[in-house]
Write a structure and sequence with these properties.
Helices cover 53% and strands 4% of the residues. By secondary structure, the protein is mainly α. The chain has a two-stranded antiparallel sheet with strand order 1-2. It is elongated, with a radius of gyration of 24 Å.
Length: 251
């Protein structure tokens, strides 16, 4: 198979099948030339070795995904120009965000990755970065123009994952990046986590809890009489939320 034929199929299908059985010593040469890199032979050899575990069939997408998940940037560079970065990365956006692979993400962004790429209307790199407490990555994404106010199909935003992280600093980064609190914000998880510093920051930023938030906090806590729950309840009381009947923290 000629190099021209290889390029033609990749251009139209983007998932050209590399069948191990079709390559012999001579026919591997155009496959080497397909990737413009000093490590072309290593790349192709690794791909073909990986084929064995894929029933002797491997696609360009499989190869890219393999090097993406193993964070081998030098090998990923061989695919630039032959693949649609956004299509290749879409299934991994939350994972690479939560793992905080700065060099990998900077490389992908520099080569066309959409900073707001979302997997099936649900996960983004920013969501993953907030969940994984990746402060440097959150800063990078904000610098690259990420939409900090994006709400997914479940009406969750980066704020939801920032709250789950339990780190006030993550919430503050979103606020600095332009986050605007709305009624759609899923802040109930802050009550489930009952972290006083998080509750206090949300109250300070005028986030709106449900009227029965203190009752919800007490009913859903594993430690209903614990100090952190009591502190959270007191913060909400001071913010003007009503005290429920049978309030367990009355002296």
């Amino acid at each position: 198979m000629s190099l021209q034929q290889l390029l033609s199929e990749i251009t139209t299908a983007e998932e050209f099948e590399l069948i191990k059985g079709r390559f012999d010593h001579e026919s591997l040469d155009p496959c080497y030339r397909l990737f413009d890199s000093v490590k072309t032979k290593e790349v192709c050899s690794a791909l073909l070795r990986h084929c064995v575990s894929m029933n002797h069939k491997l696609t360009i997408k499989d190869g890219f995904s393999y090097y993406l998940q193993t964070v081998q940037i030098d090998y990923l560079a061989c695919f630039i120009g032959y693949v649609d970065i956004n299509k290749m990365v879409i299934d991994f956006v939350f994972g690479i965000g939560s793992n905080g692979y700065m060099d990998l993400i900077a490389f992908l962004l520099d080569n066309g990755l959409d900073v707001n790429l979302c997997c099936e209307g649900y996960s983004t790199m920013l969501f993953g970065a907030c969940y994984g407490k990746r402060v440097d990555l959150i800063r990078l994404l904000i610098e690259k123009g990420v939409d900090v106010n994006y709400h997914n199909s479940c009406d969750r935003s980066a704020l939801y994952y920032a709250i789950r992280s339990g780190e006030v600093q993550i919430i503050d980064l979103l606020i600095i990046g332009g986050y605007r609190f709305t009624e759609q914000d899923d802040i109930k998880t802050a009550l489930l986590n009952h972290t006083p510093s998080i509750i206090q920051r949300l109250v300070d930023m005028k986030a709106v809890f449900a009227p029965d938030c203190i009752l919800f906090l007490i009913r859903n806590s594993m430690e209903k009489t614990g100090q952190s729950v009591k502190t959270c309840a007191e913060i909400l009381l001071q913010a003007g939320y009503p005290k429920p009947d049978n309030y367990p923290f009355d002296d």
